[in-house]
Amino acid sequence: MVAVTVALAPWLLALGVNTAETLPRGARAVDLEGGLLVLNILLPPLPYFPVLTGDAVVGWGLADGLDARVRYQTHAGLVHRLGPELRGRVLRAGAFSLAARLWPSAAIAGAYQDEVDLGVDLSTLFGAVATWRGAPWALSLDAGLTMQWLLYERFSGEGRLDDTPFPAFVELALSFEWPLAPDVDLTARLEHAVPLAPDDPFVIFGGYPRMLVGGSLAW
């Protein structure tokens, strides 16, 4: 195991879990990030309301240029999204690399007021990641579209099911990674999810900004 880690160390120094540079075959990685999601709650004098949010990702290198991951995301502990992710590198040219990613997921959201309000959806993110690596930092740009396949909502004891496919969000993100050691990266990430449904009352600058910091470990 030590020999394998030493052999992979030059690769892992140049790899980040959120970049387009996929893990070598047999390598594993964990990425943990936390931060704030900002909402417009239409309540003066505090219209911009920050909500704690976090991500956890576990990844495995399946083959050269192909990763499998499990990704979990939460907002304030009230919204939970979980699903497998497949990420494949399609181009590597010098300091530049490009990958495609597919993240099918299920989400559940609930809040207790007079009764339990509940929301469940099934969605898939179709995305691309472009990474430029300096020495030794990496800068990545993510862009994607989330398709919602099914939505169930229950308010005040009444349920509603919508199984019409719907393009729900355009997802944009800019992430920065700095390696501390051959197997440890520090990460900072700024996201903006733009809803395609009209008249969303909670958006800021046309979407939902999210700011995260954290780190990743590979072995």
What composes the largest sheet? 10 strands, antiparallel, barrel
Count of runs of 4 or more consecutive helical residues: 1
How would you spell out the order of helices and strands? HEEEEEEEEEEE
List segments where confidence is low: pLDDT < 50 over at least 5 consecutive residues.
1-14
Strand order of the largest sheet: 1-2-3-4-5-6-7-9-10-11
Descriptive report:
This protein is mainly β. Helix content is 5%, strand content 69%. The protein contains one helix and eleven strands; from the N terminus they run αβββββββββββ. The protein has one helix spanning 2-13; strands at 28-40, 48-63, 66-75, 79-93, 96-112, 116-133, 138-155, 158-162, 166-181, 184-195, 208-218. It has a ten-stranded antiparallel barrel with strand order 1-2-3-4-5-6-7-9-10-11. It is globular and about 55 Å long. 25% of the residues are buried. The model is unreliable at 1-14 (pLDDT under 50).
